[in-house]
Amino acid sequence: AMNRARSAQLYEEALQHIVGGVNSPSRSFKAVGGGAPVFMERANGAYFWDVDGNRYIDYLAAYGPIITGHAHPHITEAIIRAATNGTLYGTPTELEIKLARMLKEAIPSMDKVRFVNSGTEAVMSTIRVARAYTKRSKIIKFAGCYHGHSDLVLVAAGSGPSTLGIPDSAGIPTSIAHEVITVPFNDIDALRAALERWGDDTAAVMVEPIVGNFGMVMPKPGFLEALCKVTREFGALVIYDEVISAFRFHYGSTQTYHAFPDQAAVEPDLTALGKIIGGGLPIGAYGGRKIIMEQVAPLGPAYQAGTMAGNPASISAGIACLEVLSAPGVYEEMERLAIRLADGFNEAAARHGVPMTINRIRGAFSTHFCDHPITNYEEAQQTDSEQFARFFRGLLEEGICIAPSKYEAWFLTTAHTDADVDATIAAADRALKGI
Ligand code: PMP
């Protein structure tokens, strides 16, 4: 077995000082058999090195942001430049205009943008703005979608909360939970029924238009189009949480993704962003139609602010990351490698008689221990957690790093190579044999 003595030791120490030893619960190994998570020391390109000197191929990509691989020279240079010029001003800068322009060009529904510090903040702010604009209070969300850790959206939340068995978090007042209605993803009849009942009080329908938090799940053909249409029939706003999906599958958002030929039919009113747009530094952003965004202070009465918002380091890293991603062929190459992995895993699973299904969208995919593709949260919950845990452990022993959760995805980056893929397929073959 791999020597991870130092990780185990650091974990014991961390437990003394940091709640659960981790600063985000999704990093804990609780759902995959417990014990010490791996403490990483350094990362470069597609690789991690842990504190015991073991090397791993990284498909976690920090839960999404690291799409160009670790310490990409173009991004590193941008961060050094920003740090040299001072990390935080508390004044506007020209850099912010540049990144806002880049986002607007790629995401046509965003007339006006505001930068914040995380995906959580971005989502939280879209809800405030939607409520201010519609003067209504309720939000409809989809079971298993994860929208960060603000009160309103920690109901039937996928990702980390589901992994740890707490999709409905404690600490949320009943009065607030009553403002949220949850319906199954990909079920337009359920959404329509909810709107018929609560539509007059509904400020917005919040959705991950392409889901990344109970596996990688595409909306069924026509679902998003119908969602936008029926939501507007009831005078509510459509909010896309694209924290994980924007710039993931192509240079842009769901609205401009080729799977949705009628762009106007899938255009949201508000969009929340994060992850990739910060190039690995903390960031979030939200935006949408001008008339709606004008609710936000200083123009309007909806208050939203941030000491760190739009800081030159995050903005510079974000610009550099988008520059890397705008090169031709980048997404095609990540997809090519993801297809190779998926094919290799499928063959190995079949060889070992393990029922496994891969939900793949371009360069990202999720592995589910069941015999059918995942289309909603309930199906994802029912997959075999024990087999996933053994797969995860087997991969880790082989030096392959993925998220310790059956709900999370594998992410290809621009740094992965065919050699990495070959090694990963061989590792997965051995891991699948053992489960
Ligand atoms: N929305 C979605 C779709 C996400 O995937 C995440 C993070 N996984 C968030 C919101 C929250 O972002 P953050 O962790 O930056 O607060």
UniProtKB/TrEMBL annotation:
Pathway: Porphyrin-containing compound metabolism; protoporphyrin-IX biosynthesis; 5-aminolevulinate from L-glutamyl-tRNA(Glu): step 2/2. InterPro entries: 4pyrrol_synth_GluAld_NH2Trfase, Aminotrans_3, PyrdxlP-dep_Trfase, PyrdxlP-dep_Trfase_major, PyrdxlP-dep_Trfase_small. The modification N6-(pyridoxal phosphate)lysine is found at residue 275. The keyword Oxidoreductase does not apply. SUPFAM superfamilies: PLP-dependent transferases. It is an enzyme of class 5 (isomerase). Its cofactor is pyridoxal 5'-phosphate. GO terms for molecular function: glutamate-1-semialdehyde 2,1-aminomutase activity. Keywords: Cytoplasm, Isomerase, Porphyrin biosynthesis, Pyridoxal phosphate. Its main location: cytoplasm. The keyword Isomerase applies. It holds the Pfam family Aminotran_3. It catalyses: (S)-4-amino-5-oxopentanoate = 5-aminolevulinate. It is found in: Cytoplasm. Coiled coil: none annotated. Its EC number is 5.4.3.8. Belongs to the class-III pyridoxal-phosphate-dependent aminotransferase family. HemL subfamily. Homodimer. This is Glutamate-1-semialdehyde 2,1-aminomutase. It comes from Paenibacillus terricola.
